[in-house]
Amino acid sequence: MHDFSLPIGPVNPSIKEPTCIKLNLEGNIIREAKLQLGYVHKGIEQLLEGKKIEQALYITQRICGICSFSHSNGFVHSIEKMIDYDSPKRVKFIRTLITELERIQSHTLWMGFMFHEFGFETMFQYLLRDREYILEVFERVTGGRVHHAINKPKTVKYDLRKQDIKFILEKMKILEKQFAEYLDIVKTDEVTKKRLVDVGIIKKQQAKRYCLVGPAARASGFNNDIRSKHPYDAYPYLDFDVMVNKNGDAYARLTVRLMEVLESIKINRQLMKDLPEGDIPKSNLTFIKEGMATAQVEAPRGENFYFTIVKDNVIDRIKIRTPTFALINILPVLLENRPIGDVPVILHSLDPCFSCMERVIVVKENKREVIDEHAFLHKYCDQHH
Amino acid sequence: MNMHFSTNIVINIIRMLAVIPLALIVDGIFRKVLARMQNRAGPPIIQPFYDIVKLFGKKKSDSRGYKNIFFRVIPILYFLSTYGLFLFILGIINFQFDFIMFIYIIVLSSGLYIILGLVSNSPFGVFGSMRDMLLMICYEIALTICVFSFIVYSDVLSLGQLNESWMILKLPLASLCMFVVVLVETRITPFDTAEAEPEIMGSVETEYSGKGLGLLDMSRQLKLLFFVIMLTKFLFNPAGILAFILFSILILFILIFSEATSARYRTDQTFNILLIVLLLSVIEFIRLYILVW
Q: Which residues of B touch A117 (CB under 8 A)?
């Protein structure tokens, strides 16, 4: 028996993208939470089918507005694996630089919204200001503030200039000072602690069972950082720590991300110091007769997995597993038996990004199709079918 | 005598009318200073005037709750009850034991706010009301005890005779409790639980629009001004109008500072803190009992 049900979304201040969580409540306590997806299905995988590699690159860069580089990097890596190509060291370093800058940018934005969720508007504004420093760097280095489309198969579009390096180091210095201060605030502010400590606890065993990825898994003591487990790009040449926290609550997820920003700043300093001299190769078209490859990259939210099949120079099939897809299944479990005031905090502590994750899942048992209502609408209302 | 009486009425009417633009300007200053603290440009100080003019120019709401008569009437009553509080604090109404009616009208205003949510036919409105109802059990009683403490300490029979200065030093616990209650009443972090936007959307105000929302907005602004004046009067009560204004600005600044530098407590945490506040106010009253009698 439930008192009444409350819909969170599809339009709600606590959800930045359209999705719906239906809560069944007993007084102030949530007894049952149901997640309803399907509001921002873009059909990106089907859109990519039949596209040439260069065309597909443009689409993959636009899957996510926050981790756009991670998507293009995953795709490019899968293509490079097919043609068995190892890109020059300088290209690898530039790619790693953009990846890490993107991580800082994404975590900063996430932290801002996280503070907004429990009413700390000042921190939200401050963090948005700090994100601007990174966007300035992006604008200078890649020409685009949000869609920093710098990646190409086998190379990158623009080389890094000497004055850029100086500019980046300057900005890193400012950010390091700011984030050390924020870490201090998070560690000392009583209200923040009260809102986050022991909220939405994920144990290590649970994290493994639900196949969590990224900072959410690392906050539960489950280290699955692709950067250290399966190093790609310039990560084998770098010396960095992976931030792991054993507590597994929302507070651990906040501190892990804060520490990761500081670590990313360190990585960027190393990259600038050890950047190899030389030119980057000129870009040319890639032709692949037949090939199949997978690639993993560590996006800000966690593992980004690409599985690509190419036939006759066009994409035959592509499967993209974004981090949110792994993270979101645990949400209804975390919400159970929590007061309604914890919903925004728990939801946001997982850092969901629905628009890049939404897929239609059709499970076929013999001839019977098991299909979600929204998935059904999307599948059978699509003109392609 | 008659002449004197009529000029008095005219002055009082002017004072009451001046309260509304003053409240809007105070809200404008609040928003501007808060924005500057948060590294934003912020709206112009006269932004609340634009907002109110715009809201009052809107057509009637299409909300389903609009068919309910209470949905239309309660915003007006809420506004009037909040507005009526100024009659006491400005000394326009003055009779023996008027502080009982004063407290009654504060509670009436809070009660009407709760009904606002309940009649709005929205689960979020109901949630806002439920939260406020839960907290009201503590904060209104604490406020009542605080006001009684101040009155008893000053040994007067009406609010207008309250002339004791620097009560913050003489009754520190009651002053602290009153300050916390004001934070809850004016929905300033860390105690804006009843209006937690990411948690329960617009809370009580979710379904309101147009003139109704305009009245609610104005009531909120009036409440802010009222509690600033009330705190200044009870805690400091300095001699001279200029000193009074200076201390009001100081209290406004402290409220803005609180809004800018803290996060929001959850409902149960706010409730626990308010229980402590209630306990402290009772302790202060007992202390006063030993002190006075």
A: 198
